[in-house]
Sequence to fold (472 residues):
Amino acid sequence: MAFEPTIISFLCNWCSYTGADLAGTSRIPYAPNLRTIRIMCSGRIEPTFVLKAFREGADGVLMCGCHPGDCHYHEGNYKCLRRYHLLQKYLQQMGIKKERVRLEWISASEGKQFAALANEFTETIRQLGPCKIKGVMETLT
Amino acid sequence: MSKETKNKPKLKLAIYWGAACGGCCISVLDVHEKLFDVVAVADLVFWPIALDVKYADVEAMENGFIDVTLYNGAVRNSENEHMAKLLRQKSKILIAYGSCAHLGGIPGLANFHNKEEIFERVYHTSESTVNKERVEPVTSYKVAEGTLSLPEFFNDVRALDQVVDVDYYLPGCPPQTERFVEVFMAIVTNASLPPNGSVVGATEKAQCDECQRKKTDNKRIKQFKRLVEVIDDGETCFLEQGIICMGPATRSGCGYRCIEGNSPCQGCYGPPSTSPDPGAKMMSAIATMIDSNDPDEIIKIVEQIEDPAGTFYRFSLPGSILRRKLIETQT
Ligand code: SF4
Ligand code: SF4
Ligand code: FES
Fold:
């Protein structure tokens, strides 16, 4: 069977999730590979969430928040941006390719952009193939 | 010595080292004159660093014969694994003693590599090695006199509870000797022990909660530096001076001994139960402190943290969420 990527996406309630909703209500078709988790703000995305996603077998993780300046809690998306860069550095040390984690800003009106992002990111992960960290972690000896 | 401990049958105590440096055994010896209190109430039935008791003697013991075993060191090879399983069977209470047994410790840093890479480095490319025949250890080898055997070196380092069930964890690299004595005396006097699986000899708080250095609630950091690049003022929080300190992600109980010695905490007591992955906690804490909203500047500041994986998981890689590095040639 052809490889179908499993992607966990964390979407902030106020912009990105609404944007994704708009893609749906506008009936824009896009890749069904995202498993979306709605959070209140991109600042809520703890590094633990991303690490656990990989541990449970995700092939890619997408983080989305409001555009800079638009976060409903003022600073949340900047906090997310800082975490993202530090997390990326760590993940690369752990052998997880940086293309597997992506941070993008999607506003409530950007349904089309969200669909395009979902397609493009799914394609990127498809090219990379399955993330093997789960299997490697479980081979305990 | 109190009355109730005097007339009780002596406790049978075993101490074993897996993949360890020996420091944990020394920390037990550091009880100094309190050793008399320990041996007044306990018989040491197995302790390779100090007593000539063979593995076969342990194998001959009945199941549950040993009251308390302190297992220090990680599980690196088949010998460590065999002894972990054997001691689990023979002991009523098995304590993961020290960082390596608790979360993998310093030997656990080998999980940034696999067996193949480690053998290549150790037996072939290290500067002091000449090994033209490419000799490597094998688990069994026939010679005229018979077959010689060596334990199998595993691909991966594991914490003790990734191999057998553990009753208690006594963290630290090594554990503070006073904490060990307290825990030991609690067992001896039948004081109420915490539920199985608890960390003992430490608190539920973070180092930062106990640390006496001056700190502000809103830490803002523009630059991270290595310890050698800063003249520590001796009183301000290390993080606020731009020096990585594992305080926010480390359980207290050691008496913040490194910080008292003017050195940042490196995290040997492991994380408090509220934030079980120390790196995740540090990444989130540090990201909050970085004083910039500009993407390019953020990248520049993050770059100053040389080795996040090795720094945040110095004592805990095998026990962390990701456990080990993914090396793509691995199957
Ligand atoms: S970060 Fe370190 S120096 Fe600062 S308060 Fe915490 S333990 Fe103390
Ligand atoms: S200050 Fe940190 S590194 Fe030092 S002994 Fe305590 S927990 Fe371990
Ligand atoms: S509310 Fe959307 S990123 Fe904070």
Remarks:
- The CA atoms of residues 48 and 177 of chain B lie 19 Å apart.
- Chain B touches chain A through 38 residues (CB under 8 Å).
